[in-house]
Structure formats: structure tokens, C-alpha cells
Amino acid sequence: MAKEKKEQSADDLAIVEARRRAEQAIERAKRERERSALGGLWSRRDFFGRLSWGGFAVVSGISLLAAVRSAFPRVLFKPPSTFKAGLPGDYAIGEVSEKFKTEFRVWLVRDAQGFYGIFAKCTHLGCTPLWLATENKFKCPCHGSGYYKDGVNFEGPAPRPMDRVRITLAEDGQILVDVGVQYKFGTWDKPGAFLRV
Ligand code: FES
């Protein structure tokens, strides 16, 4: 009886041992599969493949940025400083022409002796004044400086008269204005500051 019991427990132990081995083998195989899957993820082929795609993406991104940047060139568009303003006879005596204010920031003024051009920039802080024909004066909308028709300041914080621009006659008889040459108050008697006609 005791012998039978002993044999049975030996059989049980063998079964347990076999089961343990089988479980270990399954576990080993599972780990092996996981390891090879992980190795596949970072295999040499995959690594170089990913590297090439990454490089391609970087180069494409840089090219795209360059293309977008080239659509906005760093060029400052400035109107030319010289323009022709038509014939003296096109203007009535006493007229303040605003024809060239938007493009060239200049008023062309005709008086009984000739023409002068005023650069439309307030001498306080640089705003563009308005011509008020009914009040016969220029008025700055920013801080209220006022200027007579000849550009001399008489009210508000403006410290001095507005500048004049060079004005001459071109060979074809038209008035030629050069905004690039300006005359401050005190130099208005210089040739170019006034066009006698
Ligand atoms: S900028 Fe013209 S009054 Fe100040």
C-alpha cells in the first residue's frame, strides 16, 4: 500500500515537472517572438529606410519654405522721386493741386508768379496734413498743426514750415518735380525751390 502511494506521488511529481517544462518552453517561445518582432522594428533595413524618408521629408520641407519665401521678395517698392506734372497752363492761379499727393506726397501750388511744391509732411511728428480749401489752409489731423497756403506754420505744435520740393521746367515744357530734393524754410530763394513762369 505504502509502495503504491510512493509510486503515485512520483508519477504526480513527474507530471508537474513535465507541465513546468512545457510552460517554460511556451514562455521562451513567446519571448523569442517578442524579441524578433522588436529586432524587426529596428532592423538595418528599416533603420536606413526610415533615415532616407526622414532626409527626404527635411529636404522637401526646406524646399517648400524656400518656395514660399521667394513669393515674397525683400524688395521695397518706392515710387520714382521725379515726375512730370503737366504744363503750367493746366493750373489756375491760386490753385492747390492734390493730384500728386497720394503717389508722391506733394501739393503743387500755383500763385501769380509761378509754382512751388510742398512736401505733405507735418513737421511736428510726420503726419500727412489735409488741404482745407474753404479755410485756405493745411491742417494736420494728428495734433492740430495749421499751415498757411505757402506751407508756413501758424498754429499747433509744428516747430517750422513744411519743406518744399524741387520744381523746374522740363525740355518739353512740362513742370518737372523732384521729391528727392527738398528745401527747408530759409532756403526757398534757391533755384529749384520756386518755378517762375
Ligand atoms: S504730427 Fe502734425 S501736429 Fe503732430
What features would you describe in this structure?
With 197 residues, the chain is α+β, with helices and mostly antiparallel strands. It folds into two domains: 2-69; 82-196, 3-layer Sandwich (Rieske Iron-sulfur Protein), CATH 2.102.10.10. It is 36% helix and 22% strand. It contains three helices and eleven strands; from the N terminus they run ααββαβββββββββ. The chain has helices at 2-41, 44-70, 101-104, and strands spanning 82-84, 96-97, 106-110, 114-119, 130-132, 137-139, 146-147, 153-155, 164-169, 175-183, 195-196. Strands 1, 2, 3, 4, 9, 10 and 11 form a seven-stranded antiparallel sheet that branches. A four-stranded antiparallel sheet has the order 5-6-7-8, with no helix packed on it. β9 (164-169) and β10 form a beta hairpin. 17% of the residues are buried. The mean pLDDT is 87. The protein binds FE2/S2 (inorganic) cluster (FES). Residues 122, 124-127, 140, 142-145, 156-158 line the site of FE2/S2 (inorganic) cluster.
